[in-house]
Design brief:
rRNA pseudouridine synthase activity, nine-stranded mixed β-sheet, Structural Genomics Hypothetical 15.5 Kd Protein In mrcA-pckA Intergenic Region, Chain A, S4_RNA-bd, isomerase, Alpha-Beta Plaits, 6 helices, four-stranded antiparallel β-sheet, alpha+beta, 3 domains
């Protein structure tokens, strides 16, 4: 038996807190009866409806995926392009990506069917470090690197302080490889940050998400997250 709001969150209805609001508003039924009690517990045999629509209680699953270039971070695409869930043909649960990586960005992406897990990791008040390695046009100067660390303006808003480390410079090809660590999740943020200091990105990869990395994986590979990894991600997010 589990609390109703927890089951709703795992089913991807909403975060646990938003699920509680739905319950208090009288929009949730269990076995045909409206339930407003936040401590109400349900089993897998109970029929749960939100706004008269049944939810489906699945066992939560969690995957770490090495997203290749040229793949959409979505469960479907109206242009018929390859999406991340195409790499999980044998997974019965309705999984979806936690956040996104751009079409032309490769690297570490999490997928799950656990709404509470996804919402916690994506919530702006929780600060999980994400490490990217970028190849950019031009040689990044020391002051430009420091600007990234202080924060730069993108889309009219300053970014939070980041970490930036020059990994290598190719003066013959006029390019730089730089590692950038951020904890925000704004759209195309790393690309825009590097463009803001005058160095367009030619290649971008997310190497780490929190303590997780791509060790042992090739593009298109995935592995199941271990139970302690899921718990550690949640604990680390809420400590921030």
């Amino acid at each position: 038996m589990e609390r109703l709001q927890k089951v709703m969150a795992h089913a991807g209805v909403a975060s646990r807190r938003e699920s509680e609001k739905l319950i208090e508003a009288g929009r949730v039924k269990v076995n045909g009866q409206v339930v407003r009690e936040l401590g109400f517990k349900v089993s897998h045999q109970d029929r749960i409806e939100v706004d008269e629509v049944p939810i489906y209680k699945e066992e939560p699953v969690y995957y770490l995926f090495y997203k290749p270039l040229g793949v959409i971070s979505a469960v479907k695409d109206d242009k018929g392009r390859k999406v991340v869930t195409d790499y999980f043909p044998d997974v019965q649960q309705r999984i979806y990506p936690v956040g996104r990586l751009d079409y032309n960005t490769s690297g570490l992406l999490l997928l799950t069917n656990d709404g509470e897990f996804a919402n916690t990791l994506m919530h702006p008040r929780y600060e999980i470090d994400k490490v990217y390695v970028a190849k950019v046009e031009g040689v990044i100067k020391g002051e430009e690197r420091k600007a990234l660390e202080r924060g730069v303006e993108i889309d009219g808003v300053m970014t939070a302080p980041a970490k930036a480390q020059i990994l290598s410079v190719d003066r013959d090809k006029d390019s730089t490889i730089i590692e950038v660590t951020i904890h925000e999740g704004r759209n195309r943020q790393v690309r825009k940050m590097l463009e803001a200091i005058g160095h367009p990105v030619t290649k971008l990869k997310r190497e780490q998400y929190g303590f997780l990395n791509l060790y042992g994986l090739r593009p298109g590979d995935a592995r199941t997250l271990l139970k302690h990894e899921v718990q550690e991600l949640m604990d680390n997010a809420k400590k921030k």
